[in-house]
Structures are given as C-alpha cells and as structure tokens.
User: Fold these one by one.
Assistant:
Number 1:
Amino acid sequence: MKAILFDEFGGPEVLRYGDVPDPVAGPGDVLVKLKASALNHVDIDIRDGVSRFDFEMPHILGIEGAGVVAALGDGVSGVGVGDRVAVSYIRTCDDCEWCNRGQDNLCENRRLFGEHIPGTYAQYVVAPASHCIPIPDQVTFADAAASLVAFGTAWHGLVARGDLTLGDTVLIHSVGSGVASAALQICKAAGATVIATASSDAKLDRATADGADAVINYTTTDVNEAVMAFTRGRGVDLVFDVVGGDAFRKSMFVMRPYGRLISIGAHAGEVVDFDIIEFFRRHISYVSSHTQTRDELRHVLELISRGTLSPRIHSTYPLSAAADAQRELASRGAYGKIILEIPD
Ligand SMILES: [Zn+2]
C-alpha cells in the first residue's frame, strides 16, 4: 500500500510517500481501507522527535481515519465488509479495569494509532472490530475523520470532565484549533455564552459566524481586561485551554469562584507558574482531560448526522502532499481541520 513514512526525525522534508506491505487483520481485527485522514499538531511533535512516544522506524503518522471495511480477521462479528466506519484511534485491550468500566480511553494497555503504532496516513489500517464506529449515512468520510479528535476531545473535556452547564460563560483560548473550534460549537449547543481568543481577525470572524458571543485578538488586546469588561467584572465559569503556557497561567485571574480550568494541551508551554493562593481562595478546579471514550465518539458522530454539530474543514490535500499539509498546519493559519484524501 501507499503510505507517508519517515525514517528519521526532522522537518516536513523527512516525510516520504512510499510503499509498504498491506497490513493483515489478525483474530478479532478488521482491515479498513481508508478514505480520509486528518492532521493533528501531535503529528508534527512526533515527526520532530519531541513527543515522548516510543515507536519503530520507519513510522506512519496519523491518528484519525475513516473508510470502508475491506476484510475481516477470524472471529469477527458485528462488522461486515463494506461497512463505512471511523476508527477509534486508541487501541485498547478491552480487558483491563478501565476498559471494563467503559472508560476505555484510560486503558492500562492502550496504544495510539500514529503515536505508538502505524497510523492513518496510509491506504489501509488494521483495528479491532470493536474500535470501528459506524458512520451515519449523512456523514462524509472527511467529516468523520475530522471529528474524532476535535469533537471527541472537546466533548470529553467540556461535558464528561468539565461539567458544562446551561448558562455557563466559557473562555476558549486559540479558537482556531480543531479541538477549540469544536468546543465552541458544543458550548453554543449547550446554551453557554462563549468568549473566544485567536491570533488573527480572520479566525475570529469564523468564530463569530459559529456563534461566539465575544472575540478577542490576543496579539493586540489584553485578554484578561477584555474578558472582565465583557462579563462586567463577573469573570467566567469555565476556561477551555488547548495551549497551556501564558494563557493557562493568566486564566486563573478571570475565573469566578467554583470555576473550572479545563486543560487539554500545552503546545505554548508545558511548565508554568501557578498561583496557589488565587487557586484555593476562590475554589477553582483544575480539570485535566485527554482523548475520549468510544461511546463518546459514537455520540458526537450522531450529533453531526443530526446537524447539531458541524466539522470545520479548512483545507484538503492528497495523501502524497502530507508534507505541504503539515506546513500549513504549522503556519497556524487554519480554522478547523486539515484533511488528507486517501487514493483508491
Ligand atoms: Zn484496557
């Protein structure tokens, strides 16, 4: 099969479009012929060599994928050849304490496609049958691939972990990212008021079109002053932070008592000063969140099929041009997701 491979860490130039043997579905697995994959910032971290994941070279990137079941391994039931499926990117054991609780994203033996094992920048991927989420008829392969990380992660952080509530005011940092733009839609569907930040007016215009009640260009405006002015000194109930660094550190000072600071990423800084006094005097909660369960993936795909949520796709590249797609992602000009179309 064709795949995007790399043999050494480095910039986008290390990615090569090459041939590798087709994977084979073992017992309980299915072979999925991919139609669409989607980019994530972690792909770039892995390619650069700063991800802290262990994997073998040459490696195939790609967390998200959607396609058609092409072959079944022994003992597979409930999935048929030709089914349209999205592949949950967390390969779990389905046997540990967390898997048995339905919290499979915390599986003790998990391995992530594209992070620990070969990913979806490829024509085929092998996954356990239980990891194949049916794609509703109304949802395209591109929309399905664009939704797993973005809507799945945002849903888990806001709803399962952050207790998003009707009437909450939510500050969403760097709203142009795939996960943050999805968080905006979930917050609006849940009846929240949203303040969104971004580095460009173009991204803020997109956020306004998606329902943001107030927008702040953080390159030209003091975010905390603007948040306190918009909320008339009240502050926010929730912060949804995909970036870490300064945004995380300063958020403490615009949160109401009982506010929840949901942290799902730290590309702008993994280690920050933390004002403990502000934190405990106002009963602020730090809420950590990572990935999502397969049940949550089914749920967000259902909401997309109903039109409640709608993936935002910024651009689409052929698989062979994955390096160019990553260059665009790294330029941080995108609003929403960048998709790879997989050739037949
Ligand atoms: Zn497990």
Number 2:
Amino acid sequence: MRLLHTSDWHLGKKLNNFDRIEEQRKVMREIVTIADEQNVDMVVVAGDLFDTYNPSSEAQQLLYQTLYELSNNGQRPVIAIAGNHDSPDRVESPEVLAQVSGIFMFGYPNSIPDNAYIQKKFQITKIDQGFMEIKIPGYLAPIRILHTPFTNQERLQAYLGVTEDEEQKALRNQLQNMWQKAADMYCDNAGVNILIAHQFVINNENDTDVKEPDDENAVNVGGTSAIFSYNIPKQIQYTALGHLHQCKKVGDKNIWYSGSPLEYSFAETNQDKFVLVSDIEPNKEPSVNKIPLESGRKLKRMTFNNILDATNWLKENQNCWVELTIVSDNYLSHSDKQMLYDASNKIVAIIPQVKTTSDTLSAGNLISSIRTDKTALFKSYFTKMKGGEPDQSLIDLFNEIISQQ
Ligand SMILES: [Mn+2]
C-alpha cells in the first residue's frame, strides 16, 4: 500500500503583506502530480489545512479543489485532519460533499465518518471514534487509521471525561491511553496500521533539538503538551504528523513530520520541502521516500554593507523573498530605500543596522526610562532603530496617541 503524507499547507497564509496564493496553487498542483505519478493508494493531510479560523474564499476553494483532485474521482481515499490553526467545525463542515468523493475531514479526536454518505468506490469496514478501517480495490489487507486532529488537554477531557489522577491527566498519557485502546482493539499484524496526528511530538524528555515553527501558535507551552515517541502504540507502523514545518523523522521508529510544502517564515530559510511517499505492508518495516517539492520560492535573509551590493544581488535574485539587513553608519535615507525597492518587488523587510555608537541603549536605562517617561523612551527607541532622532511632528503625534490611551 502506497501512502502520500503531507501537512501544514496553511492555505491563505501571507508573508507580511505579501499574498502567496499563486505559489500555493502551484505547489498544490505539484503534490497532485506526485500522487498521480507515484500511483499512491491513499493521501493524508496531517493538519493546518488553512492558516486561520476564517480563511478567504480563494483559500477554501483551493483546499477543496486540491482534495478533490487528490481523490482521483473518489477512488483514492484522502484523509485530512484539523491542526491548531484550523477551526474544527469548519474543517468538518463540507463532510457531506467530501465523503461522496472519498474524502474524510476530521475536526475532533472523537470524530466518526458518517457511513450514510459514503460512495462505495472503496470499502469502509469498521468505524469508531477517532478510528476507521478501509479496504481499497486490488489490495487484500485492511488499512487501519487512527486519526487524531490537533487536541489540547481541555478538548480531550471534554471527550474522554475528566481524570482525577495527576499523572494520567497529562495530555501525552491521555493520548497514549486512547491510542493504545484503539490499537489493541483493531490493529493486529494482518493489516496496515497508521496513526495521523497534529501534535508536538519529540523522541523523549531529553530531546531538545526540536523547535516549533516560527510565528506559529506554540502548542507546547511550558513543555506540558509534548508527546513522546513511546506514547505511540507498538502496533502503529507509520505515524503521519503535522505541526513542524521541517521534514523530519522523530526517533528511530517511523514517526514522521512531512513538513510544510512552502517556506513560510524566515526561520525556515534553506529548508528543503518534501512530501513523503511510503510503501507500507502488514507486519513489515515501511520504506519511506522523501520527494522534493520544487515550485515554492526560496526565502533569503541577506546582509549587506552598502546599497550597491544589495541592489546588485537583488537584481540577480528576483525569484526569492528577501529579508534585507543593511549595515551602515547612518539611518537609511528615503532614496536608499527607493533604490532597493526598485531592484526587487519581493523585499519583505528592510532592517537598518546602524553601527554601534557610544550612546547605545543598555537594558538598564531602558527600564528606568519606561518608569519615567514614555516620550523619552520612544525617542531612544526610534533613535536606536532608525539611527537618528525623530522630528518634532513625529513626537507630537506620539504624544497625541499616548494621551488617548
Ligand atoms: Mn500547527
């Protein structure tokens, strides 16, 4: 059985004020082409389908169109779950239309597909809360799928009931119990056993090299929401995760983050992007293949000591999104900025870095100015960021705003 695993599409996501829907259309098309060329039997999208709870209509249209194309006219099961960026109800709302195309959209950990809507191009043999077993044409073994959209402790307790035991209360223990119960009931080695989840999963309590994506809402606040690889039942042969934007295997079992299809923040600079295509057979070690995605633009963080070098580089690198740092003796002039913006229409930010002067603010006098005078603080901040003092009209404007608070 061949599975395509992708996640973190964040459809509708912008880079500062720059729209990326065209890039998203291209990379969605690339994923559909890979699914067809690789002849995959099933597709999993492991959460963060949209970037926000209220995505634009073009982002919604792109999601439905892509899932439909991936379903190959209802012959290829497609399973999409909600991430922490998605509204669980919104993810489930097209259920009636989705299921006749063989697409399953789950918003909650106890979601169950409604059998009434299923068109029988493939067979659903068992369903339960957070679980389904399917049979696809031409493949004998049943495919068991544990599907757990993003959940936090509150959501999980609402479905599973409150436990008094402190240790059992931890999210990872609750998830472990829930998964183990389903695995013991449905997953023997006569079938293919898969878990789909959108969580922060690390190898164990000592695994410190994993970071949540930049400008993502962190889900692992204070370390209490991390799931460990050993919380996943032994019966599970392949875990398809979403949340981290880098393609990554967790520990030495087949627990995988596919990563996002595009570089979404400057912290992802130089991360290659992939989908994972895996062959999974009952009672065997899966073979996992990373297939590169190439249609996205690169994000570059560049530093230059003068405007000329910067504009030359920009002219030669028209295809990347750029965060530019310009190191200089003074504050950047309007005409300097204009030259840079004329050289490229993909400058996301210009950071002027004025060479250190003797009156650089220290943390100590910053704190004392917060306590004394907001205007003085504003002046120092502006001077530090822009390399020159604000003029009187700006100070007046600032004072006006402050007086209205
Ligand atoms: Mn996420």
Number 3:
Amino acid sequence: MRHDIAIVGGGLLGRLLAWRASLSGLGVVLYEAKDRIGNGATAWVAGGMVTPQAEAVDAEPELVAMGRRSLSLWPEWLRALPAPVHYNADGTLLVWQRADAGEARRFEALLKARDPLASFQRLDAQQIAAQEPALSERFHEALYLPGEANVDNRQLLSALADALDETGVECHWNRHVDDAEQPDASIVIDCRGKSAKSRWKELRGVRGEIVRLHAPGVELRHMIRLLHPRSSVYLISRPNGNLVVGATTIESDDASPISVRGALELLSVAYSVLPELAEARIVEMNSDCRPALPDNRPAIRYSPAARRMEVNGLYRHGFLLSPAVVEEVLAVLPQLLKNPHHELGASPRWPSLGTREEALACH
Ligand SMILES: Cc1cc2nc3c(=O)[nH]c(=O)nc-3n(C[C@H](O)[C@H](O)[C@H](O)COP(=O)(O)OP(=O)(O)OC[C@H]3O[C@@H](n4cnc5c(N)ncnc54)[C@H](O)[C@@H]3O)c2cc1C
C-alpha cells in the first residue's frame, strides 16, 4: 500500500507529526535511524521545558505566540497518549544573586516590552519560601512566571512510540534513510533535525550540555532558573528524586562529550541554588547539538517537484514549539496531498513558516 506520507526521522518532531497525522486519518510510515526509545534524538538529551515567557526575552513575539499555542496543546495531547508522561505546569521561578539585581530588572523590562501578554509576579523572600520551600532563605527576590511547563522528554518519546503502534503507523526503527533514497509515499517529510544539514545547507548545530542528578529528598515544585549575565541555567525536578540541570548554549557543531567548563558551570549553579545537592549523585552528563537556522526560527519548506517537505530549525525550542509546528504541517498537508504540485505559501497564522522561494532553494 502506498502511504500518504513517509516521515524520515522519528525524534521529537517526526514522532509527534506521525502520531497526529495518523490520528487525522492519513496513512503514515516512519523511518528512524535509531531505537524506538528515542536515544538517537536531540530530544533524548533535552530538558523538555515549555517556557514561552522565559524565552520571550530572546525570541520574537511570533515564536512566543507559537509557544503559547503549544503550551495549550500539550496537556490535551499528553492525555491522549497510551502511557503516562510526567508534565508539570506549575511555572518558572527566576532567581538571582544580589549582585545580579540589575540583570533581573533588565529581564523584567524586556519581558514587559516584548510580550504584551506577559503575566508575572515579583516575590519577596517570604513569598519565595511559601512557593518553593526548598529555596527558603536562599534568595531575597524572585520573578514567578505562572503556567510554564516541562515535560519528561524520555517518557514522551517512549509514549509516542507506543501511540504510533496504537494508531497503526508503520514504524521502521533502526533504519537510516540515505539522502539519495525517496521512500514510497505521496509526500516525504524530512524531520531529521541536525542530520538534515546535507540537504539544508543553512542548518547549523548549537551545542547544549546537560547534567542529570539523583537527589532523593530534594523536590522542586517549579522550574528554577538562575538569572546571570553570562549564563542561563535551570533546574527541573523529575519523578523518583531525579533532577535535570541544563543547559549550556555554545555556537558549535561539536556533539562530543560534555566539557569540564560545561560540567563546572552547570554543577556550580546547581550547588549555589541548592547547597544540599552536594550529596546528589551525578547520573548522567550529556551533550548534543540543537538544529538551528540562521534566524533561530523553525521553518517548513516544500519542493513540489520532489514532493518533499522539510521541517526543521527547532533550535532551543523543540518542546516549546513542536505542537504548533505539527498543527501547521497538518493544516497544509490535505492541499498538498490533493495536488502535490501545489506551492506552499507563507502560513497565514505564522508567516515566518514556509515560503515558495525556500522550497525552490532546497533542490
Ligand atoms: C542540552 C539540550 C537541552 C534542550 N532543552 C530544551 C528544552 O528545555 N526545551 C525545548 O523546547 N527544547 C530543548 N532542546 C532542543 C530540542 O531538543 C530540539 O529542538 C528538538 O529535539 C529538535 O527536534 P527534531 O525532531 O527536529 O530533532 P531530533 O529530536 O534530533 O530528531 C531527529 C531524529 O532524526 C533521526 N535521523 C537522523 N538522520 C536520519 C536518517 N538519515 N534516517 C532516519 N532517521 C534519521 C535521528 O536519529 C533523530 O531521532 C534542548 C536541546 C539540547 C541539546
């Protein structure tokens, strides 16, 4: 049987798209170079934060709006998965050392200027202790960004693999698809993340390093981010006493193991925020490259001649943006399946996604 779509790359975007496309009634085949648990994906290494407000300071309003859309989709989508996925939407607490109060004021001003829907609260020491007992007497001020979320990335990848089985997606795990191959389907969708560079020349890697700790007894209700002029490190509690400390952001295609500098930066921030982490156990140190386009925004491009779509450039925002991006792809697919020679124009909702010129530049 000829499938409607063949998806190459079953990381975060590929799995999510395959599942939602199948739920919408399309026949889907998925090819993933690595295991079904998802350990070949950048999404396996990631922190899983869905924090549109915290990102508003560095990202354009349209991306923030897409992040908000994703934030509203995640709970519903996660509920529809066949296995539970840890999701915490109790918001972000931004904290800082006294010497960095200027950085906090700058962050607050930028947030107000860039995000008209920004809703945050300034907390004093007492309020911090009430909101986040683990931080009691550690910080004199904080900014609370309610509603922001994080999703357990590894549980998500596994639950998505189960969902693909449930909805009848034909999955080929451990199946690397070469550039020269054209899987048999009406439309092929390339979701290879950083590995798509051979076709999309402007893609680059942005290295990120992350540490996973086991710290039973240290439980955080919120995501904690330490504001600092030179780094942006966050701490996220995960079930069973686990804690994620991420992430560095380095302009480099180098996905080799974590550097001493990266490990020191992440661990010293973690220790300065929560000194009781001194006795935590380091379970994993990891690194990978985020797939980024020159403007650090995601893009969809389509070549009518090749009947090939490429969706990429999720950068630091895979979990923040992928539901909104998937929704967009599903909105244009019916038209393209009816007429594969149709040209993909700019999206009315997210104008920066997908243009004909980009599609032509692709081949
Ligand atoms: C340290 C770190 C922390 C991060 N934290 C966050 C965060 O908190 N929040 C957030 O929103 N984002 C975060 N990200 C970014 C996020 O992980 C990425 O944006 C996201 O994973 C990109 O998704 P993707 O599906 O495009 O690529 P991937 O997740 O990398 O998936 C691509 C898949 O394609 C497969 N593949 C490659 N080549 C082939 C081939 N030839 N044939 C078949 N399959 C192939 C790969 O095996 C892989 O499974 C973080 C990234 C890093 C590195």
